[in-house]
Design a protein that fits this description.
The protein has two domains: 24-128; 135-273, no CATH class. The protein is built from eleven helices and two strands, in the order αααααααββαααα. It has helices at residues 2-23, 26-48, 54-76, 83-103, 108-115, 117-133, 141-163, 178-199, 209-235, 250-254, 257-270; strands at 167-169, 173-177. The protein has a two-stranded antiparallel ribbon.
């Protein structure tokens, strides 16, 4: 009972922070995403490098944040990327690689793993900020992404516990079932229909856009969850952190979003909708 209460309280605080950052000026969401990127980089570093020194961990955090701001600030200033931005990004990546290889004597494999955090952690939040900054609707699109993912997580958990019998991918995540996946997908589709019919009613969306988004985001969220579970099993850890009581780390909480946000971005900007 106490664990459930703790989990509920920390979950409500998390939801409140997400909603508040999206309802205020875009700069607040820029800062919120930077906070998530920084904590995620710390957890990612501990997961694959370990707690060797605080300075090494700080360098990884600084690396992730530098790349995030180098890409995001031109968006917030409504300016296009230029040679200076690209050159600065290359310098940051090069300096980080030199520090890891020479100063901390990391192997190439570990360096590549840490560089992959640019795609896994930094890129999704750059895309989320771009979506939010360019959003002209009354109800934030990014909040719609969160609602769909939260709906999928909640109803997959409920249906999996109530009727789940057939394992989805037991070696990676023993608790996930096909029944849970189906329940989450169905509930997310219904939520997508609701968003399309009663929330996002402007002309900027094609008919059925949010239903399409739901049908894409639900599987993407599950893949993100499974991928995170695979990483933790590979590194023999239960949670990536303990910053969110009852939920684990930020990587644990945002695992679905790391895949859902790029999937939504592709649907929104790159597909004929």
């Amino acid at each position: 009972m106490r664990t459930l209460l703790t989990r509920s309280i920390s979950g409500l605080i998390f939801v409140a922070l997400v909603v508040l950052s999206l309802l205020l000026k875009p700069d607040f969401f820029l800062g919120f995403c930077a906070l998530i990127v920084g904590i995620s980089m710390s957890e990612f570093h501990k997961l694959f490098i370990g707690r060797i020194t605080r300075v090494a961990e700080f360098i990884s955090i600084l690396f992730g944040l530098s790349c995030y701001f180098i890409i995001s600030i031109p968006i917030s200033l409504k300016s296009s990327y230029n040679n200076n931005s690209i050159f600065l990004l290359i310098i940051v990546i090069t300096l980080y690689s030199i520090v890891q290889l020479i100063l901390y004597k990391r192997g190439v494999k570990k360096l590549l793993i840490m560089l992959s955090s640019l795609l896994y952690i930094v890129l999704p939040f750059v895309l989320a900020f771009q979506i939010h900054f360019n959003d002209i609707g009354e109800f934030p699109m990014v909040l719609g992404i969160f609602i769909l993912v939260w709906t999928n997580d909640t109803f997959a958990y409920l249906s999996g516990n109530l009727i789940g019998k057939h394992k989805l991918y037991e070696k990676v995540s023993p608790n996930k079932t096909w029944e849970g996946f189906a329940g989450g997908l169905l509930a997310t589709a219904l939520m997508g229909y609701f968003l399309n019919s009663y929330v996002y009613t402007g002309n900027e969306f094609a008919n059925g856009f949010w239903l399409k988004a739901a049908l894409i985001l639900a599987p993407a969220a599950v893949i993100g969850d499974l991928f995170e579970s695979w990483l933790k099993r590979k590194m023999h850890v239960k949670d990536t952190g303990n910053i969110m009581p009852g939920h684990g780390g930020v990587l644990d909480r945002f695992d679905a979003m790391f895949f859902a946000i790029p999937a939504f971005y592709i649907l929104l900007y790159l597909c004929d909708i």
